Amino acid sequence: MKNKNQERLCSFLLDNGIENLIGVPDSTLKSFIAQGLKKKKNIITTREEEAIGIGTGMSMSNSPTVIYMQNAGFANSLSTITSLVQLYKIPLLFIIGWRGYLKNDAPEHELIGKIQPELLKLINLESRIITDDNWEKNSIWALKKIQNGMPCALIVRRMKVE
Amino acid sequence: MSNIEGPVISANGHISRSLYSNCDKTSNFYMIGSMGLASSIGLGVALKNPNKKVFVLDGDGNILMNLGSLTTIGTIKPKNLIHFVLDNGIHESTGGQPTNSNQIALERIAKAANYVIYKTGSPTELKKILKKIENLNGPIMILIKILQNSEVGKRIEIKPIMIKHRFSNYLKN
How far, in whole angstroms, is CA B117 from its chain's centroid? Predict the structure, then answer.
């Protein structure tokens, strides 16, 4: 996604009920995170699971929360997502940068990137891929999901390798 | 814990089971899975409920799985967060395997992470500490050296979704 649209996405979420952005930085989401920092709604954690824990405490306090991370961090967090977010039905909105979507991405992303869509399916976490063209429509979908008490994820693909 | 007024986030394993057996309240959030995250959940609750004192009931094994959380808490410095660590030096819930808290002083790590720290092994002293911290700003860690639990509490019979609902409703008031 273009930098400008990542910034728009961040502002759109904050204008539509999201009060906190918590996560571990990911280069694919750089502009999204920068915008969150600018708006002073951002907490950067040491690990993704920590972000999910903080977000859970905030969500239970009736404060809608986005958790952002790279797909590698999503893989780190599988147990926390299944045994906390899904078990207690915590409506967190995940934004996940997807490395390894392109075949020529860096080697550490190859295997985990390849199974990213399967991982989401296996744990039954509903998700949509967002692009420059559909981010607004899919953000509305995600905001509705969490309003209805369900966690969900928006996925941002890494479209170039530097 | 019966004298404590405020939300309590209790770590998974024997800690939550003991709390549930001895002092069940709607203000308790019992973790079942997600080991290590009690302090993080507590931070989230503390930040959104600045007028309530928020208590985390953690274990040595639990906090050792999420030491990074101490640095996040110590950076944000929530005034209303009180972090108990029940330290028996073992992973009691999984069969008593040793933790590193026998060799490493957790309170020194917490102190380096901007916590106000207390350490005790005596119930009388603990009462005094609880009195002392009443008007003190957090984050505060109270490291309590304990022996292995001789009686394991019953398993939590409340459904996780219900644990969340009643805790969330309690926070609204």
Answer: 14
Note whether A47 and A24 are within 8 A (CB). Answer: yes
* B29 chain-A contacts, CB cut-off 8 A: 60
- The B54-59 sheet, strands edge to edge: B28-30, B8-10, B54-59, B81-87, B140-145, B116-120
Q: Is the separation of the CB atoms in B26 and B173 below 8 Å?
A: no
Given a contact cutoff of 8 angstroms between Cβ atoms, the answer to whether A70 and A38 are in contact is no
CB within 8 Å of B60: residues ≥ 6 apart: B85, B86, B87, B88, B89, B90, B99, B101, B106
Q: Does the structure's ipTM exceed the value 0.90?
A: yes
- Counted across chains A and B, CB pairs separated by less than 8 A come out at 106
Q: Quick check: is A114 in a domain?
A: yes
Task: Give the total number of structural domains in chain A.
Answer: 1
Kindly report, residue by residue over B39-73, the tens digit of the pLDDT: 999 999 999 999 999 999 999 999 999 999 999 99
Query: Which residues are CB-contacts of B40 (< 8 A; sequence separation ≥ 6)?
Result: A45, A49, A50, A51, A52, A53, A54, A56, A57, B66, B69, B72
What digits encode the pLDDT tens for the residues B78-96? 999 999 999 999 998 888 8
Q: Looking at the complex, does the CB of residue B169 fall below 8 Å from at least one CB of chain A?
A: no
Q: What whole-number distance in Å separates Cα of residue A41 and Cα of residue A38?
A: 8
Asked if A94 contacts A154 with a C-beta cutoff of 8 angstroms, the reply is: yes
- Domains in chain B, number: 1
* Residues whose CB falls within 8 Å of the CB of residue B96, separated by 6 or more in sequence, listed in order: B90, B148
The reply to whether A162 falls in a domain is no
CATH at B44: 3.40.50.970
- State how far the Cα of B112 lies from the Cα of A23, in Å rounded to an integer: 23
Question: What CATH number did the domain enclosing A52 receive?
Answer: 3.40.50.970
Is A112 a member of any domain? yes
How far is A49 from chain B, CA to nearest CA, in Å? 8
Q: Which of A45, A61, A83 to mutate to test the interface with B (most CBs of B within 10 A)?
A: A61
pTM across the whole model: 0.96
Residue B106 structure tokens? 């957790």
**Domain presence at residue A125:** yes
